[in-house]
Amino acid sequence: RNWTTIKEYEDIKFEFFEGIAKITINRPEVYNAFRPQTNFDMLDAMDICRERSDIGVIVLTGTGDKAFCSGGDQNVKGVGGYIDEHGVPRLNVLDLHKAIRSMPKPVIAMVNGYAIGGGHVLHVVCDLTIASENAKFGQTGPKVGSFDAGFGSNYLARHVGQKKAREIWFLCKQYTAKEAEDMGMVNTVVPLERLEDETVEWCKTIMMRSPMAIRMIKRGLNAELDGQRGLMEFAGDATMMYYLMEEAQEGKNAFLEKRDPEFQKFPKFP
Ligand code: 2NE
């Protein structure tokens, strides 16, 4: 498969193939743990994915066959957060969670190994998870002095139920890909050598569907859980669709032409 580089970064690879953008955390020496720079890189790539209309689906993965992502890089964990190159403590992976959630296109976690700690949260936040048979899932937060009481736990509970979510966080055990699938937090499991082919097939199927329908389904599923913010994003898209209608154009045209708008000519559907 001929992936072409979209943009070069320090900590990630960012590539394109037939409508699919692939973001690969490229820090195999730390099992693809993220530091603040990694999240800045991913946020920049996500912005590009949002803007480019030739990108239909985003795939998030990690380099190698050991890890998808092992969470926050413990080497740079300091007082108040993960320390960036200027000495500022950050937890900017939360901005990435928001970007994945807001992205009006599907984001698929292609889990090629450990999805642990903050890496587990990343796959939870993605719209779909496709895992290889060797993948392992689990939390470590309460073992290593951390926790994610946001999407990483409450959205997780929507996937696996409250009892399992509490088990995952309280015990910090590891689960096989099959167990994760049985729990409902993984969509499908395939042999490692098939992982990318399977993911690309899912992407291509999604891209045969109506992008606007997919977008509204994602917004609607988010809105039920995301409160005012979810409603705002759903409503924003409703406004966008209204702007596509002649009825909305009439309002603007009437204003510019200094006349009363003729809204009554538009149908009132039952
Ligand atoms: C992932 C896991 C279970 C793998 O175990 P194993 O035994 O197969 O490999 P090993 O030897 O532990 O790891 C391989 C190399 O990767 C580094 C290790 O230090 C090791 O390096 P060397 O000794 O070979 O030089 N490595 C792995 N994970 C790392 C990490 N997160 N930071 C820095 N280096 C890492 C095992 O490695 C493991 O349990 N890793 C730690 C997972 C973890 O606790 N992550 C942080 C959780 S907290 C978090 O992510 C978080 C949050 O809870 C809330 C908000 C934001 C972040």
From TrEMBL:
Substrate binds at residues 70-74, 82, 114-118, 140, 146, 243, 258. Its cofactor is hydrogencarbonate. Hydrogencarbonate binds at Q139, T140, G141. It comes from the Bacteria. GO terms for cellular component: cytosol. It catalyses: 2-succinylbenzoyl-CoA + H(+) = 1,4-dihydroxy-2-naphthoyl-CoA + H2O. Pfam families: ECH_1. One of its GO terms (biological process) is menaquinone biosynthetic process. Belongs to the enoyl-CoA hydratase/isomerase family. MenB subfamily. This is 1,4-dihydroxy-2-naphthoyl-CoA synthase.
